[in-house]
């Protein structure tokens, strides 16, 4: 799937891009390849969608997004793509995933909203419910963040 | 740490992307009307303050070759701390939240293979004594969060596949 070199690149880039004027030259030197070769390989990882982006991930608890509501919806299979598109169209929805159900747990579509206030989340959920016409759902507000990290691949 | 106008401008920009070029911080600096030194100094400060959790590559777990699931566990309140200790010790557990529900502990697991994923779930059950754990793997991703705009509006992209 990934070449040995690509795995090494993933391992390094997941730990962060060095904060020095020529970060790719620094990483390339560690990998024993040229800067141009590294940049081409990174571009290729991005083109294939292996790397979504090279950028900053923020600690959102510290920038004012304290209320996080996950809503689990029970959507008839035949309506799934349509309802998912309606929910994904809400700019307040940051994630919209279809998931397998489990015994005793019939919910199959999950949306996440991060807002400064709980009441704002509830108002958005009500609009979503009305827009999609889905009445069977569970609101799951977060009460504590016990862990939030980025995955470190190829380190296990 | 207080963020000023220039910090916010820089955060908005670096959440989207860092240019794939030899001097990426210089390229950002020119775009934003700053010097390369200022960009580097501000990024360092925000990273040290924990506002930037990570500045690097953000990968699609499936395309990297990993598999994963969301789990929901029903944990008695008095056991939450101990169960969280066991669960969070796995490097593949990247997110764990307490939520207002009978299923009160929600965590994601990523593993390099289906077999390893099974093993982790079984180990967690044995080591915590919690049997009631729902496994809810993603089958389709319609939208995935990308950035937070610093004026308070979330941006997201979709559709795509990946994550747990």
List descriptors.
heterodimer, A: 156 residues, alpha+beta, four-stranded antiparallel sheet, 5 helices, B: alpha+beta, 6 helices, 7 strands
Number of helices of chain B: 6
Spatial extent as radius of gyration of chain A: 20 Å
* Helix amount of chain B: 25-40%
What is the CA-based Rg of chain B, rounded? 20 Å
How many beta strands in the DSSP annotation of chain A? 5
Largest interface: A-B, 81 and 82 residues
Q: How many strand segments of chain B?
A: 7
Distance, first to last CA of chain B: 33 Å
Strand content of chain A: 25-35%
> Whole-number average pLDDT of chain A?
93
State the low-pLDDT regions of chain A, or none. none
Number of helices of chain A: 5
Query: Which structural class is indicated by helix and strand composition of chain A?
Result: alpha+beta
Q: Kindly report how far apart the N and C termini of chain A lie.
A: 18 Å
Give helix % range of chain A. 25-40%
Q: Summarize the main sheet of chain B.
A: 4 strands, antiparallel
The chain-level mean pLDDT of chain B equals 90
Question: In oligomeric terms, what are we looking at?
Answer: heterodimer
Q: Please state how the strands of the largest beta sheet of chain B are arranged side by side.
A: 3-4-2-5
What is the N-to-C order of secondary-structure elements of chain B (H for helix, E for strand)? HHHEHEHEEHEEE
